Amino acid sequence: MVDTSSFTSNMATGWGGAIYLTQAILDVSSSSFVSNQGDSGGGIRISNADPSQIRSSEFQSNVASSGFGGAVFTWGSSIDMLSSRFHDNEASQYGGALALGTGYKQVFDCTFTDNTAGTEGGAIRAHVTASSPLWVGSTSLRNNVAADIGGIFLNSLPQHAVLRNLVLWGNGGDVGGVAGASSPTIANVCSEFFLEAGGGNLVPASDPFVAGPDGELFLLPASLCVDAGDSAAASADYGVIGLDWADLSTQMDGSLDAGIVDMGAHYAVE
Ligand SMILES: [Ca+2]
Q1: What would the mean pLDDT of 83-100 be, rounded to a whole number?
Q2: Which of 15, 79, 118, 136 is 20 to 30 A from 228, alpha carbon to alpha carbon?
Q3: pTM for this structure?
Q4: How far is the CA of 180 from the centre of ligand 1 (A)?
Q5: Sign (positive/negative) of CA torsion 219, 222, 224, 226?
């Protein structure tokens, strides 16, 4: 267990700049990983580590110098990524912030900004199959960059991925997979691009975000993404974390989310 810890400027010539864990459970909370570097998993690399969790942590400027997952690279591991922020991480190949391999994967209430991948998935690249599904909920992504899909790249069988209550802007390709792949379930998503008909998906006319002082992606009050989410789904997702979205804010002024849930990541009010 890692709690309230800082890992800064560590370097590995192999996997996992700060942490490499196999056949054990990773439980990280309220910690920061800054400017660490490894071949793959610039911050953390885990394999066969069930069930692992990363919560309320920050990953900034970590680098996968010759492989995958600038911040975190997983394989054979179920993992919950909860209420964490990923900024300016970089992978030479895929998964600028997260490269998620086999295993059951959830990403809830996370913020991804300015992450970069050389190939696929500037923010997230996930391997998705029936036995390795992916859920991404109440998460915000802006200005992530990759040669192929700056936002979320779904490898293999995207129909086993569910994306809901997300806000994406400036990723130069928000969600995608290999040519001809099946479609994920996309619902109540606010995106720069038309992603999927129906399901409450919206295309705002301009950038819906305003950056907060600590790397938050707040929503502009008049944005289409406000009061447009799936409240029941958000309640289920935040329930995993033991939180209620109505106690959190998507707004720079700290006003609590009321009425219908807002799309995207939520933030604690100081
Ligand atoms: Ca609301």
Answers
A1: 98
A2: 79
A3: 0.98
A4: 36
A5: positive
Task: Sheet with 105-108: list strands edge to edge.
Answer: 2-3, 27-29, 52-55, 79-82, 105-108, 134-137, 161-164, 185-187
Q: Could you give the CA distance from residue 48 to residue 52 in angstroms, rounded to a whole number?
A: 10
How far is the centre of ligand 1, averaged over its atoms, from the C-alpha of 201 (Å)?
16
Residue 261 C-alpha to ligand 1 middle, in angstroms? 4
Domain boundaries, the chain: 2-205
Q: Could you tell me the distance, in angstroms and rounded to a whole number, from the CA of residue 231 to the centre of ligand 1? A: 9
Is residue 222 exposed (0-12), middle (13-18) or buried (19+ Cβ within 10 Å)?
exposed
Tokens of 66: 């010759």
> Which tens digits make up the pLDDT trace of 102-129?
999 999 999 999 999 999 999 999 999 9
DSSP string, 8-64: ES-B-SSS-SSEEEESS--EEES-EEES-EESS-SSEEEES-TTEEEES-EEES-EE
Give the per-residue pLDDT at 12: 87
Q: For residue 168, how many other CB atoms are within 10 A of its CB? A: 30
